[in-house]
Amino acid sequence: MNVGIIVFPGSNCDRDAEMVIRDLLKLPVRLVWHQEKDLSDLDLIIVPGGFSYGDYLRCGAIAQFSPAMAATIHHAEQGKLVLGICNGFQVLTEIGLLPGALMRNRDLHFICDRVSLRVERTDLPWTQEYATKKVITIPIAHGEGCYYADAEVLKEMEAHNQVVFRYCDSTGSVDEASNPNGSLNNIAGICNRQGNVLGMMPHPERASDPMLGLTDGIHLFQGLMKKVAIAH
Amino acid sequence: MSVAPSGALLATYSFLFIRLEKQAVAQTYQAQIFVTLRPSVLDPAGTAVQSGLHQLGFPTVEHVRIGKYVELTLEAASESEAKTQLDKMCDQLLANPVVENYRFELTPGDAS
Fold first, then answer.
1. Which neighbouring-strand residues pair with A31?
2. Residue numbers in A near B93 (CB within 8 A)
3. What's the rounded Cα separation, in Å, for the pair A86 and A51?
4. Residue B1 lies in a domain
5. Among B43, B51, B96, which would you mutate to test the A interface (most chain A Cβ atoms within 10 Å of its Cβ)?
6. Residue pLDDT, tens place only, A49-103
7. A70 — contact with chain B (CB < 8 Å)?
8. Would the pLDDT of A216 be above 60?
């Protein structure tokens, strides 16, 4: 599996993701400068966290026009895998690969914390490794992570099981108290209808190396390895 | 003289003529663009500012909503072309139609 990680001016989680793929999973990975146009060698594109183009205007708004994102749309349209983490999730909603938008957190604070997530479906390549552990702990670090979509879109997403991760308490119960940022329906991560594009505010790459104390994130990447190994 | 070069010459002249004509009619416009949150979207920053205004001594203030203001100049052949261009700019970049509305005002002439 060939992995590419898009690097915008202002990305700051690109090397964390690279380290996980290269050093923990021992897979070929390359950093993709945002001006690159040809990403046809890649199986998985990661749009990493950070502050692309300073997040001027809106988070992810300017990043959507970079050549690498045009190539990412083409990649996704072929059914190949795209993962947007944090700012990457914001970029994927701005370019329309995922529905909705990410708004200022309910309490206006930048939140840096570990949160419990309920894995809502384990039939996706992203989540197949979570079949036996459906409540996981992953860090979040964002100021604009409040998920919003209008009622109609939300209903359609729920009907098609597009919500992949929800904020919950340690027992897996989803309620307002376990919602850190005001996201509608406690949404922390969603996929497109086909399931090949995933966007999530929590950072699985920061919960992969045992040295950092949390390892629930590595299973997401391990699940992908299996999926792509089968596909090849 | 062969036919081809004179044809090319003619094409060049008509190309130049069209360019000159376009330049002659192109008009500079100044646009003031207001981007606001759609009414259905919560505005926690607006709510915080509202409570600040209450504490400042304006207890009757309500419905505080914070938006963005963008100004720019552009060139267009006509006002309707300028509007078409601005609609594209707003729909594709300046506003996010999922959560925001926009409106703009257009005045002929440079910013001064």
1. A5
2. 57, 61-62, 65
3. 10
4. no
5. B96
6. 999 999 999 999 999 899 999 999 999 999 999 999 999 999 999 999 999 999 9
7. no
8. yes
On whether residue B64 sits in a domain, the answer given is yes
Average per-residue pLDDT for chain B? 88
Domain span at B63: 26-108
d(CA B106, nearest CA chain A) in Å: 21
A62 in contact with B, Cβ within 8 Å: yes
For A157-206, write each residue's pLDDT tens digit. Answer: 999 999 999 999 999 999 999 999 999 999 999 999 999 999 999 999 99
Q: Is residue B6 part of a domain?
A: no
Considering CB atoms only, which of A62, A108, A148 is closest to B41? Answer: A148
Looking at 3.90.79.10, 3.40.47.10, 3.40.50.2000, 3.40.50.880, the CATH number of the domain A3-231 comes to 3.40.50.880
CATH number, domain of B71, equals 3.30.1280.10
For chain B, give percent helix, strand, coil, nearest 5: 45, 25, 30
| pLDDT the model gives residue B1 | 45
Domain boundaries, chain A: 3-231
What is this structure's pTM? 0.88
Q: Which residues contact A140 (CB under 8 A, 6 or more apart)?
A: A86, A111, A112, A113, A114, A115, A180, A181, A188, A201, A202, A203
